[in-house]
Write a structure and sequence with these properties.
Number of strands: 2
Strand order of the largest sheet: 1-2
Helix content: 55-70%
Distance between the termini: 39 Å
Number of helices: 4
Oligomer: single chain
Largest sheet: 2 strands, antiparallel
């Protein structure tokens, strides 16, 4: 779980760096903005760039959003110990209209978490290519 949190922190920094590059401002300007808002803004800003930048950046941001959603699902769940070795967790239902104390169940395995960590590492690595497109194109 700790590796997932650490790699996602690096990924959050990459998303912020992309946003900074797209608007040509100094690092740190939008650091207090939620990552989901930075993704939304970066996606909008990338649409004005020449091809293939919008699709490349959009695909990266889509993968990042999915990764952050999965991270939140895992990190914000309680995982009671199971004698069978099965890994499952629960957290308060995320749907805002649910107010009866229902929970969302998260099921995973050590293998799935390892695959997710590899996926996150690949996403962080892929940022270099995406950033090169965002930083090398003229500002919109």
């Amino acid at each position: 779980m700790g590796r997932i949190v650490c790699i996602c922190a690096v990924l959050e920094d990459k998303v912020a760096s992309l946003r900074h590059a797209l608007v040509r401002v100094q690092q740190g300007r939008f650091t207090h903005e939620p990552t989901s808002a930075q993704i939304k803004t970066s996606r909008r800003l990338s649409r004005d760039l020449p091809d293939p930048a919008p699709s490349l950046i959009g695909a990266f941001l889509g993968r990042a959003q999915v990764a952050f959603d999965r991270r939140n699902e895992l990190v914000h769940s309680s995982f009671p110990a199971q004698a069978s070795g099965r890994i499952w967790g629960h957290r308060a239902a995320r749907e805002k209209s649910v107010t009866d104390g229902s929970t969302d169940t998260v099921v995973t395995s050590v293998e799935e978490m390892g695959a997710f960590i590899r996926e996150l590492a690949t996403l962080v690595w892929d940022f270099n290519h995406v950033y090169a497109w965002s930083a090398s194109t003229p500002a919109p």
